[in-house]
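Reopening this ticket.

The earlier resolution said the output was attached, but the attachment link was broken on my side. Pasting everything inline this time so it's all in one place.
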Amino acid sequence: MFQLHPTLAGPIFQAKGTAEDFCGRHPKPKVPCRLVWNITHSPDVTKFVRAYNLDVWANKIVAIIVTIVIALIVRRIVQKTVSKVTTRMAEGTMSDKIREKTRTIFDGSPALVSERRRQRAETMESLLRSIASVIILGMATFSVLGEIGINLAPVLASASIIGVAVAFGAQNLVKDFLSGTFMLLEDQYGVGDVIDVGPAKGTVEAVTLRVTRLRDVNGVVWYMRNGEIQRIGNESQNWARAVLDIPVSYAEDVDKVRSILESTAAGMTVNPPWDEIVLDEPSVWGVQALTGEAVIVRVVVKTAPGKQGEVARELRGRVKKAFDEAGISVAPLTG
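Inline output:
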């Protein structure tokens, strides 16, 4: 039954026979069992592999590893494709007609157009990469569970029933997710924007599909559910406007006040960094209102998004100095 291996000098013996003798002829021996026989030529080891279905589990492990590797490769390819597409969006591959229309909307500022499109591209990239990962890894998980031998039909049926029950109890959550998706797709606002959502107003710190987090001027952090946001006022899109209402005494010459305001505002816009923040020539609209104690003169300055507060504070300081030098008194602002 045993014979000395002709190529070895030691007392090593091999069993006669074939893989079919110990792995079974029907069905045809699987690759792992045949491989074990070819390596060991041991009937006991081969029968052990066969008896405990180690060859079957070896096939399953290989299939699981291949599934996971393919899923990771596909996920990587999809994410690279998404990044490439969104990068092209940010770099500006639109037609001349669309580009001209976009610049008109953004009041002709190529810098604002480029920055806004870059922010939107980054938001879209993050959203699409997350969706792709969930779908691809979810499909891979189901494939692995099926390979292990778990019957997915009852699981899917139970998940469907539970999903219907949860849907009735989580309508607000679904509403939040849908609202958040449309907010991101429509570019209603982004991180860094100053928005007014009614109950709160502040700078957006984070945007997810469920909630929006913003911080107001007092440092208070607000969490707004996307489904509860009925209106949004964005002060950081395209451009902003600093509006100053200057109260002066009835005794002052309005034309003189207007001239001082024009020269002061114009002198501010030629000095850095205000020359890059102010987008257009300041305008003195004139007398805006009359009260019992003062004449209200309005000055407006078009600024870069989110910079209207800085411009207004700087201009107020310059107006105060100019009025002091010209001897013009500022009246109390009441009513």
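Reporter confirms the inline version is readable. The chain has eleven helices and ten strands. The beta strands are 2-4, 13-15, 194-196, 201-207, 211-215, 221-225, 233-234, 240-248, 283-290, 295-303.
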